[in-house]
UniProtKB/TrEMBL annotation:
<dbReference type="Pfam" id="PF00749">
    <property type="entry name" value="tRNA-synt_1c"/>
</dbReference>
<dbReference type="Pfam" id="PF19269">
    <property type="entry name" value="Anticodon_2"/>
</dbReference>
<dbReference type="GO" id="GO:0004818">
    <property type="term" value="F:glutamate-tRNA ligase activity"/>
</dbReference>
<dbReference type="InterPro" id="IPR045462">
    <property type="entry name" value="aa-tRNA-synth_I_cd-bd"/>
</dbReference>
<dbReference type="InterPro" id="IPR004527">
    <property type="entry name" value="Glu-tRNA-ligase_bac/mito"/>
</dbReference>
<dbReference type="InterPro" id="IPR001412">
    <property type="entry name" value="aa-tRNA-synth_I_CS"/>
</dbReference>
<dbReference type="InterPro" id="IPR008925">
    <property type="entry name" value="aa_tRNA-synth_I_cd-bd_sf"/>
</dbReference>
<keyword id="KW-0648">Protein biosynthesis</keyword>
<comment type="similarity">
    <text>Belongs to the class-I aminoacyl-tRNA synthetase family. Glutamate--tRNA ligase type 1 subfamily.</text>
</comment>
<keyword id="KW-0963">Cytoplasm</keyword>
<dbReference type="InterPro" id="IPR000924">
    <property type="entry name" value="Glu/Gln-tRNA-synth"/>
</dbReference>
<dbReference type="GO" id="GO:0006424">
    <property type="term" value="P:glutamyl-tRNA aminoacylation"/>
</dbReference>
<dbReference type="InterPro" id="IPR020058">
    <property type="entry name" value="Glu/Gln-tRNA-synth_Ib_cat-dom"/>
</dbReference>
<feature type="short sequence motif" description="'HIGH' region">
    <location>
        <begin position="12"/>
        <end position="22"/>
    </location>
</feature>
<dbReference type="GO" id="GO:0000049">
    <property type="term" value="F:tRNA binding"/>
</dbReference>
<dbReference type="InterPro" id="IPR049940">
    <property type="entry name" value="GluQ/Sye"/>
</dbReference>
<dbReference type="InterPro" id="IPR020751">
    <property type="entry name" value="aa-tRNA-synth_I_codon-bd_sub2"/>
</dbReference>
Amino acid sequence: MTQNPVIVRFAPSPTGFLHIGNARPALFNALFALRHGGQFVLRLDDTDRERSEERFAEAIRRDIAWLGIRPDRFERQSDRFAAYEAAAEALKRSGRLYPAYETSDELDRRRKRQMARGLPPIYDRAALRLTDAEKAAFEAEGRQPHWRFRLDDAAPHVQWDDLVRGPESVDIGSQSDPVLIRGDGTFLYTLPSVVDDIDFGVTHIIRGDDHVTNTGVQIQLFQALGGVVPSFGHINLLTTASGEGLSKRTGALSLASLNEAGYEPMAVASLAVLIGTSAPVEPAADLEALSRLVDLSMISKGPAKFDPSDLDGLNARLIHGLPFEAVADRLGALGISGSAAFWEAVKGNLVRLQDAADWWRVVTGPISPTPIAPEEVAFIAAAEASLPEEPFDAGTWKLWTDRLKAETGRKGKALFLPLRRALTGLDHGPELAALLPLIGRSNTMDRLAAQRLVPEA
């Protein structure tokens, strides 16, 4: 028997920019497809015509491409209304979709009365008891019905084996028949989503655990439409370090802003996936490698807390491991014409690749000399006098400092820090043994001379 290929989907609504919390389910779906040789469908859930915007749709496609996700199929729900109408008609014919005429105020008053009587505030299916004459009277008043999906009372407990959480069960008997179509004829999320999953052959639905309670209704809807029920996996949600949820409408930690800030996409992807799992948080080289580091069984049931400072550390580790060939074009785009020697000298001091531009300015100059104490003037003069002739190479720094140590008796910080300040204008940075050949003898002499002329205030 041939096993059906794995098909997963990521279905964002184009109503805002994706943030790192949205990246988590997108990545888990993409990694699951990679791990199992399956397909990844990007579907825009854009049935909300008032809030959906093309600029957000374009940003979604751009952002997931930045993460390295290449969809095998792209769909828009706004192109598929005929399929949803056909499904709705089929549900109406089978008696599973029925019209209800209550207004929001009437439903609210009814819920309050039920709660006052100690009853659960669920819909009492009053609409099923309406006569044709009563329905006609409502419509004569100008009321347009909304349409509810009649849940199956014969199967009040819907069970499934969750790919992340293990055995799960939802008590359908404690839920109201959900509204699938609004009074204005527009569809809510549930029906289009299930119809698409059936039509596209989705085999696994991997999403946030805030959807666990929706799963029972959706399983019954799959069954009512004659579709194959996919496997479900509910991953823990990503929150801020303080436990707050992320919102794409506020732009919190948007993928676009992380990209603009210079973070590596695989640092973002690695952190978005690996936090909240039992796997160590380490940078992966690409999505294929990341897919081998984690699977759904390793995901915790508790929230996954994202701290931006963790991203800095992970990004730095990723940068430090990049060879020159992988960054040469990007360095050129920053105006850096340095060779592999420059990259090897500075990469260990970078958090983001764009930080290399600061060190390129240090190498090429000019730099601003730092104030110097009177007792340091003689030392800088001695440094000028003992500077080796060209060519400079990896051994020049040791040769120079050994001479100075012998002439001045200085060692340690007293020897090295004044030289670092004179050559770079800073108290920290890459190894000077690697920087000195890049700075060159002429620049070094100019900087030493300039340093002597800036007295301490």
